[in-house]
Design goal:
Blueprint lengths: L3 H6 L12 H27 L6 H8 L3 H13 L3 E8 L5 E7 L1 H13 L2
Length: 117
């Protein structure tokens, strides 16, 4: 059995507050369309930078908005695609987390690269 379907079956989730208004729920449904492409973009950057990247570095490199980047990184961590491995000084002198791709993430990135024309 091929491992590819299980790697591509994972999708990030968008969530609205349980008691939020219907407009919040509609926005979460609409956001689902760009969640997977954003995750794929973040994943491919993390694959290239083996030393890992901080959230701020990912935001600068991908041009994904901070709020979206934070949500996608959390989804990817929850899915076992990426993990935090250590900290380093961030742009304001505070220590920040460094994200790295996991073995599962490497396999997913490989499948994504093979799918590109």
């Amino acid at each position: 059995m091929s491992e590819q379907p299980s790697l591509l079956d994972w999708t990030p989730s968008t969530k609205a507050r349980k008691r939020g208004p219907e407009t919040s729920k509609a926005a979460a449904r609409k956001a689902q369309a760009w969640c997977t492409p954003q995750c794929n973009t973040l994943l491919l950057y993390l694959q290239v930078f083996s030393a890992g990247l901080t959230r701020a570095e990912l935001i600068l490199k991908t041009n994904i908005k901070e709020s979206s980047c934070c949500a996608r990184l959390r989804d990817m961590q929850d899915g076992g695609i990426i993990e935090v491995r250590g900290i380093r000084p961030g742009p304001y002198g505070m220590d920040v987390q460094v994200y790295h791709i996991t073995e599962r993430g490497e396999a997913r990135a490989k499948v994504l690269r093979e799918m590109k024309p």
